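Students often ask why inverse folding is considered easier than folding. One informal answer: many sequences map to the same fold, so there is more than one right answer. In these notes we will look at a single instance of the problem. The structure comes first.
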């Protein structure tokens, strides 16, 4: 068997491990933290393209604890409805975009990988790696060294493997926004389950969904002109942060303030970042994937989908191309155009959320209705490249890609 050392037990790590196992490889996953993601409070919407890719790997049960979000509805801060936009066309078997708590997704992916016999090693932080005459060796913080035939860096935005492959690799770019959010109980907000409400507030973007039990999941993206330091953000206490958010939405005629007030634990702010172009994804038998190679702004709602699509393509390349280095090179050339286009899309979406001045807000309020008119009239043409992309496990890697 050919052993693949997979660094990172988030989304890309377990998903690619299961794809490689299907391809006949022997993957082992190494996660820096002790038990992974149980304490991660945030959530995400896995778009229909990523959901379909999970299905192709036979692991869409990882979303069992989530709920479907087939639609987005946009409102201006003054309460004016802009548009109802499908969250991508339904895929095979009626698959649509689905919201899930991040911890539920991570734990379900990990448990399914373990159930399929894939070893997971926790408390294993990779600090270095090198090539050997026959493969690779990974060096871990606890002093252990592990040999393998190839090494896959699925170690997220602040990837160590990216820096091992290229010490000059770019660092993440700050999107001039921070992220925050939470879960609100016992508050009524307009709308129904199945729709994500996007509120383009006068001073800040706000989004919420109703889960099946009546809880409201929300996030907001306040503008932050300069990249904050960790210390700067840590110095903002929970009460001060709640007060600042309530003030940010005080001019809007939406449910944002009620939802914030009804949230017990509001997530402390953290910077929104992306990673536009990483020149080197591969060095011989080492490669990066997922956020390590191409983090997309959360504004696109596509980062996890890109990581899962990567997993399908990486598994297919290793299945169909006998030479490992050639297979990794093929993976990079197949994925780079799509993910870099997605990062650019996410940047534009994030920039639309920035309300740094009244002038900028007025421009946004002029441009957005036109944009939504175009999307509503011609949804297939304008966003189908995002949502209708399908990575099919059963197609050979050389087959031309067919849009759904
Ligand atoms: C606020 C926010 C909202 C988002 N919303 C969405 C959304 O709605 N839809 C969507 O599709 N995407 C969303 N994303 C993006 C999505 O979360 C990421 O794209 C996705 O998690 C990437 O998966 P990954 O496995 O590449 O990285 P991660 O999920 O970050 O996993 C990396 C793993 O590697 C481990 N690790 C790191 N360094 C090492 C090391 N040296 N050794 C061993 N292990 C290591 C980490 O502990 C972690 O478990 C959002 C992101 C953010 C920040």
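Output (designed amino acids):
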């Amino acid at each position: 068997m050919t052993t693949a050392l997979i660094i990172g037990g988030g989304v890309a790590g377990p998903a690619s491990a299961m794809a490689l196992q299907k391809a006949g490889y022997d993957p082992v996953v190494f996660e820096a933290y002790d038990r992974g993601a149980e304490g991660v409070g945030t959530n995400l919407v896995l778009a229909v393209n990523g959901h379909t890719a999970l299905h192709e790997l036979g692991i869409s049960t990882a979303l069992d604890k989530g709920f479907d979000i087939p639609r987005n509805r946009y409102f201006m801060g003054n309460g004016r409805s802009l548009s109802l936009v499908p969250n991508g066309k339904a895929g095979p078997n009626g698959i649509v975009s689905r919201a899930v708590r991040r911890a539920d997704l991570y734990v379900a992916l990990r448990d399914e990988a373990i159930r399929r016999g894939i070893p997971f090693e926790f408390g294993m932080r990779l600090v270095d790696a090198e090539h050997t005459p026959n493969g690779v060796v990974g060096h871990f913080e606890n002093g252990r060294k592990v040999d393998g035939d190839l090494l896959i860096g699925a170690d997220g935005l602040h990837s160590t493997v990216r820096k091992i492959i290229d010490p000059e690799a770019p660092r993440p770019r700050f999107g001039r926004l921070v992220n925050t959010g939470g879960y609100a109980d016992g508050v009524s907000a307009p709308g129904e389950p199945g729709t994500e409400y996007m509120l383009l507030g006068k001073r800040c973007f706000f989004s919420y969904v109703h889960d099946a039990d009546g809880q409201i999941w929300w996030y907001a993206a306040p503008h932050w002109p300069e990249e904050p330091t960790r210390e700067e953000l840590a110095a903002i206490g929970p009460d001060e942060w709640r007060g600042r958010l309530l003030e940010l939405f005080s001019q809007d005629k939406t449910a944002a303030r009620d939802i914030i007030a009804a949230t017990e634990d509001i997530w402390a702010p953290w910077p929104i970042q992306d990673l536009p172009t990483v020149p080197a994804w591969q060095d011989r038998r080492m490669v990066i994937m997922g956020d390590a190679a191409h983090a997309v702004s959360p504004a696109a709602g596509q980062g996890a989908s890109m990581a899962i699509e990567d997993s399908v393509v990486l598994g297919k390349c290793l299945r169909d191309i006998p030479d490992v280095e050639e297979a990794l090179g093929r993976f990079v050339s197949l994925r780079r155009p799509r993910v870099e286009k997605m990062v650019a899309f996410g940047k534009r979406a994030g920039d639309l959320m920035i309300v740094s001045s009244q002038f900028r807000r007025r421009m946004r309020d002029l441009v957005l209705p036109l944009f939504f008119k175009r999307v509503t009239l011609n949804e297939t043409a304008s966003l189908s490249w995002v949502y209708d992309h399908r990575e099919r496990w059963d197609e050979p890697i050389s087959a031309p890609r067919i849009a759904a």
